[in-house]
Write a structure and sequence with these properties.
The chain is mostly beta strands. The protein has no helices and 26 strands. Strands 9, 12, 13, 17, 18 and 19 form a 6-stranded mixed sheet that branches. Strands 10, 11, 14, 15 and 16 form a 5-stranded antiparallel sheet that branches. Strands 4-1-7-8 form a 4-stranded mixed sheet, with no helix packed on it.
């Protein structure tokens, strides 16, 4: 059985001497093999990753990731499972992965939980200085993909750069539009991400300012949100940690609906009042459910009018 180290909650700091320019003398910068699990199945339970007949390596709920696992090179037999109401393991999948020195394997769960899909993505880790690498994937089923744009914080969308079209289970490294003479990778700094439908130049998604402050590899994962918000897309930012940052559209509206369970009233009049002076009035018959209404994000008070 391979020797596995504890999951790391911070970026790995293991570094070796720089690689030779000769491919024949190539030595990996990182001496271990690496493994991480991301859960992108929207109707999933908390899902565990373990060695077959061995130790549990990590767990992830929807939109989260396990910690980074370090291991020796070679084949590793994995099983993914959930715990049912009787505290019994329910095996979802068994997967054999080939781990290599200096390489990270990212296992991604997507699709419906009743028929899950586990995909394996891998890349060679590199020693970086004042730069970062950026990868992107999607776990959104039934879409035609999304065009991903990016620019420096403070610039308008008209100055944004198209990085590519992100499709379900595709895994691509993105190219920086303004590389330095010493590196083709992205400069560390603050950026904004945008999404459009394929071929459109009108964004339906604009992230908050994102600080890419670590010399490491980042993975953008597009998924749907479990909340009721406009356009229903979230971008998760995965690094070598169990901490996954989640970004929704800065301008998205929230949605709500109301159910009138009062049997002794023909109808009720409701008012939703926001802290910015906005109000929304609804008249609802007994035992009926209203349509969805859109409101801006904020704090609200729901009142039943006499």
């Amino acid at each position: 059985m391979k020797t596995l180290l504890l999951p790391t909650l911070l970026l790995s700091l293991i570094q070796l001497s720089a690689c030779s320019s000769s491919s024949d003398d190539y030595e990996p910068v990182f001496s271990d093999a690496y493994l991480q699990f991301y859960n992108g199945s929207s109707n999933s339970a908390a899902t565990l990753m373990a060695e077959v007949d061995g130790n549990t390596l990590g767990t992830a709920t929807y939109g989260d990731a396990s910690g980074l696992i370090t291991s020796q090179s070679g084949e590793l037999e994995l099983e993914f499972f959930r715990i049912d109401a009787d505290d019994q393991q329910v095996i979802l999948e068994e997967v054999t992965v080939d781990l290599s020195e200096g390489e990270k394997v990212l296992m991604i769960l997507s699709c419906e939980y009743e028929s899950p899909s586990f995909t394996t993505h891998r890349y060679i880790r590199e020693e970086l200085e004042a730069h970062f690498r950026l990868f992107a994937t999607s776990v959104i089923s039934g879409s035609e993909g999304y065009d991903l744009y990016m620019n420096a914080a403070g610039e308008p969308f008209s100055a944004a750069h198209l990085l590519g079209t992100i499709n379900l289970q595709q895994f691509d490294e993105l190219t920086y539009w303004d590389p330095d003479t010493d590196s083709d990778y992205f400069n560390e700094g603050e950026y904004i991400l945008y999404l459009t439908t394929p071929g459109s130049n009108v964004p339906f998604f604009e992230s908050a300012t994102i600080s890419f402050a670590f010399d490491t590899e980042y993975v953008l994962a597009l998924r749907t949100t479990t909340g009721a918000i406009q356009d229903n897309v979230v971008i998760d930012l995965i690094i070598n940690s169990s901490a996954v940052a989640n970004y929704t559209d800065e301008d998205a509206t929230a949605q709500y609906r109301v159910y009138n369970s009062l049997d002794d009233a023909d109808s009720v009049s409701l008012t939703l009042a926001g802290n910015k002076g906005t109000t929304d009035d609804t008249i609802l018959s007994a035992n009926t459910l209203s349509d969805f209404s859109e409101v801006e994000f904020g704090d609200y008070r729901l009142s039943i009018n006499g």
